[in-house]
């Protein structure tokens, strides 16, 4: 496998970190149906982020180890063979297993989408999204709003599992809608009863969005509640040390990493090293190495989209994440965030002090951090946790990727 230029040099600049003093976890692999995920590390689906180019980068840094999930695919768009959606479900030949995350609210549409994937061989694993907290999803009764409707959740899972055939079906969810409407234990039990293969729990409610601190105790409680299947923990994993600590403290069977790898695809090399007991092997790339990865990321996006300019434009949102902590002036940051060609991006990066070492403070939270939001729900959604009236095909989103 071809490894990004930064990979070998970043690994050579490894220095001891917090993970070096942490005992290696007892979990070394994860079973999802017929697939062994070793080490038990999963890239979280993120809208507009975990497309094929980003998955390629993360997978290369991991040496092909782990599981890398597509960004969210809406079942209605898939069934209708929306052009953008069909591009989003394209996997590189090196991606094994191929993992798709589906969003849906209508059981019949979810069933059609899953059967399409199974019958046409479009993926090897299907994950169902019951964790997205954004208003355009929850106002339709989807994402993190849906598990409140227990019977609807059961109907969707039943259709998905029955339609998947030999393909394993997993689900990702949150604790609940808010502190007054906690659903994760009921949802976990329903998942087991309907044949779901594994569950990932983000230790926050929908109302928290990405604010505050993830509740790892909830992950431990879910593991105790559904010992029959693997439970994966998600939330506040910013380093390999955090992943090791989550497994050790909660007893979960693996970790799902989201915002922690934004602008840091080499985090997956750290995670592999930590779970394999190579605790001191931590990537601390200098800015020169980071710049090389940035250009490669933008290049891959252009090749995937089929247009260099559009690829660089799509890359703009990643600039601040990659440069976090480095001494780069605000004007240069703005300039790099409006580039429209690879030459322009490379030229701007070459003006920086590329000999800067990995900065103190570059680790830690990145991406969205807002919290304490009012969750937008369909009218009357909270009146009855079992009544599914009014939820149907018209609630399905018709676009994928978020």
TrEMBL record:
Q: Which reaction does it catalyse?
A: a 5,6-dihydrouridine in tRNA + NADP(+) = a uridine in tRNA + NADPH + H(+); a 5,6-dihydrouridine in tRNA + NAD(+) = a uridine in tRNA + NADH + H(+)
Name the cofactor(s): FMN
Q: Any keyword Oxidoreductase?
A: yes
Among InterPro entries, the record links this protein to: Aldolase_TIM, DUS-like_FMN-bd, DusB-like, tRNA-dHydroUridine_Synthase_C, tRNA_hU_synthase_CS
The signal peptide stretch is 1-22
- The DUS-like FMN-binding domain sits at 43-345
Q: Which GO terms describe its molecular function?
A: flavin adenine dinucleotide binding; RNA binding; tRNA dihydrouridine synthase activity
Report keywords, A-Z.
Flavoprotein, FMN, NADP, Oxidoreductase, Signal, tRNA processing
**Function (record text):** Catalyzes the synthesis of 5,6-dihydrouridine (D), a modified base found in the D-loop of most tRNAs, via the reduction of the C5-C6 double bond in target uridines.
The UniProt family comment states: Belongs to the Dus family.
| Name of the protein in question | Probable tRNA-dihydrouridine synthase
Whose protein is this, by species? Streptomyces caeruleatus
